[in-house]
Amino acid sequence: MIKLIKGDITKIQVDAIVNAANSSCLGGGGVDGAIHRAGGPEILKECKEIVRRIGRLNPGKAVITTGGYLPAKYVIHTVGPVWRGGQAGEDRILSNAYKSSLKLAEYNHLKTIAFPNISTGIFGFPKLRAAKIAIQTVLDFLKKAQFIQEVKFVVYDEENFVIYQEILKKNIIK
Ligand code: AR6
């Protein structure tokens, strides 16, 4: 049910890939920039409509748009926490970002979803701590999931890859 992949999330063929966005939801650098570049203008158009309707996206929340030109059908945009030293609710917000994305996938009856390592780039969240939260949140959610059959962690950098490999090995997950 959980798979680890090293690579570029914009190339992954799943029902939805998750974007590590910001509260404006209008694109940015890192994986966000890569997704908008590869997915084309339709994604930004839908993001703008959503922001017009519901306002800025608070950290921990998620919304869904088309995947545009991506191999993925949808993009789920979520906002992780900016790391401020660990006392500002960062762990809970990061877990909520994963949970909100998974809930949205379930709500839309999606079967496969791929996550990047939310908040561990520009937002500066420590990688090991983030990986433990990501994996635990997904494992807990999968116990009660009705539609989601597979979650892929798509890891871009070597450091995160080694961390995920170690944790997943210990959990005896293939
Ligand atoms: N595929 C998969 N993972 C990637 C890719 C890719 N193509 N590119 C980068 N990563 P970041 P954040 C990894 O900085 O920390 C944006 O400007 C990267 O190695 O993209 O949540 C937003 O608009 C790292 O492990 O997101 C926000 O303002 C992970 O993706 C802000 O950055 C997340 O790094 C969000 O910061």
Topology:
Blueprint: E1 2-6, E2 16-21, H1 30-39, H2 41-54, E3 62-66, E4 74-79, H3 90-107, E5 112-115, H4 127-143, E6 150-155, H5 158-170
Q: Tell me which ligands are bound.
A: ligand AR6
**What fraction of the residues are assigned to beta strands by DSSP?**
15-25%
Counted beta strands = 6
Q: Supply the number of helical segments.
A: 5
CATH topology: Leucine Aminopeptidase, subunit E, domain 1
3D shape: globular
Order of helices and strands: EEHHEEHEHEH
Which runs of at least 5 residues are low in confidence (pLDDT < 50)?
none
CATH class: Alpha Beta
Main sheet attributes: strand count, strand direction, barrel closure:
6 strands, mixed
Distance between the termini: 8 Å
Rg over C-alpha atoms, rounded to the nearest angstrom: 15 Å
The CATH architecture can be given as 3-Layer(aba) Sandwich
Give the strand order, joined by hyphens, for the main sheet: 1-6-5-2-4-3
Averaged pLDDT:
96
Secondary structural class: alpha/beta
